[in-house]
């Protein structure tokens, strides 16, 4: 935690994050917890001295209990938002590298993870066709998963209104 590539200065917070896009059987994996009223991508802060690829594999294993391999880097996401939970009202700026992980061919997980604040995290397989019914972040995910995508896409999201 204390070795994450991120910092806070007053009311501003920055983090370098690695995240996973895991799709099995037309469902995409998201995380959620009992405190926040939304779902979020699997991933977390990159540690100092760690590559984003190492970070995403570590985070996926920590959150799902399953070792997924990286397929490819898919999205570079610049994300601006107002924080929640332990960052309520904080002006947040995040750079995230989203990796598509190689499918396993099953949805078996062994998750027992907790959030930074110690809250139990749950994993949810959300059908891609129903994603718009969920309050799920990043918001680009539903569009991205329904379109053809090759190469690396650069996406900027600003939710600070």
Topology (elements, then pairings):
Layout: E1 6-9, E2 12-21, E3 23-24, E4 27-33, E5 39-45, H1 52-64, E6 70-82, E7 91-101, E8 121-127, E9 136-137, H2 141-146, E10 153-158
Parallel strand pairs: 2-7, 5-9, 6-10
Antiparallel strand pairs: 1-2, 2-5, 3-4, 4-5, 4-8, 6-7
Helix content: 10-25%
What coarse outline follows from CA principal-axis ratios?
A: globular
Average pLDDT over all residues: 92
Please outline the major beta sheet: 10 strands, mixed
Number of strands: 10
SSE string, helices as H and strands as E: EEEEEHEEEEHE
Number of discrete helical segments: 2
What is the straight-line distance between the termini?
29 Å
Proportion of β residues? 35-45%
* Category from helices, strands and their pairing: mainly beta
Radius of gyration over C-alpha positions, nearest whole angstrom = 15 Å
As residue ranges, the low-confidence spans are none
Description:
The structure is a single chain. By secondary structure, this protein is mainly beta. It has helices at 52-64, 141-146, and strands spanning 6-9, 12-21, 23-24, 27-33, 39-45, 70-82, 91-101, 121-127, 136-137, 153-158. Strands 1, 2, 3, 4, 5, 6, 7, 8, 9 and 10 form a 10-stranded mixed beta sheet that branches. The chain is globular, with a radius of gyration of 15 Å. The relative contact order is 0.26.
